[in-house]
Amino acid sequence: MSSALLVEYYDELPEPREGNAKAWEARLRKALEKFKHKVTARYMEGTLHRLLGSSDARARRATALALGLVGSMKTSNALLARKLHDEDRGVRQLVADALWSIWFRADTDAHNHELQRLVELRDRGKKRVGLDTLLEKAPQFAEGYNQRAILHFQTQQWQQAIADCEKALKLNPYHFAAAAGMGRCYLELGKHRAALKAFRSALRINPGMDDVKQAIRALESALGEERDDKK
Strand runs (DSSP E) across 12-152, as ranges? Predict the structure, then answer.
């Protein structure tokens, strides 16, 4: 199936407008549900994978959005991650968003919903207990470890955060945020070379992380190291 119909669905999405933010979000959610329904009725995931390689940037954008809604961790994660290097900025942004969506629904429906609930909790104590319990039930849920790493970072438990970032990356080697988070933890510990290595790893996965680029430049200057041409 060609990309023409998918792009048509994509073009039906509402453009951002100034005004009531909640009303806009509600309108966008409704439009995305309609877009998802049309995509699933017409396209298989494998077809979307092929369309992600289209020469048309708008088709790649539409495909990235579609995969963010219907793609699976097992078959779409690696393919999408490679498109973080796409020449089109819009594609890169939609791919990053799609990856986050896929990461948050990488386990069973029950575990996915529980993680979403825990992320929204303000009570850090309850969140920690909930994440510990979730990961006992779902030890292969990479995003669960990443979210617990974020919580450890917020409570200045740098080593625990690093350990969870490492677990997230072992399960999902394309998790650029976990790699960057590990770098920030090493910075807090004063381990600048380890931080630089982690930041470079994050940027190799996702070259669009401007804050990571800045951190790398600062560390390279402080350590007297030459720029890493691979980043």
Answer: none
H or E segment and range at residue 208: none
The Cα–Cα gap between 155 and 150 comes to: 9
Report the 10 Å Cβ neighbour count for 72: 12
Q: Helices (DSSP H) in 189-227: which residue ranges?
A: 192-205, 210-223
Half-sphere exposure of 45 (CA within 13 A, CB side): 13
Q: What is the pLDDT of residues 45-103, one digit of tens each?
A: 999 999 999 999 999 999 999 999 999 999 999 999 999 999 999 999 999 999 999 99
Q: Which is nearest to 185 in space by CA: 197, 171, 174? A: 197
Local structure of residue 225 (DSSP, 8 states): P
Residue 173: half-sphere exposure toward Cβ, Cα within 13 Å: 4
CA–CA separation, 79 and 48 (whole Å): 11
For residue 19, how many C-alpha atoms fall within 13 Å in the half-sphere facing its CB?
8
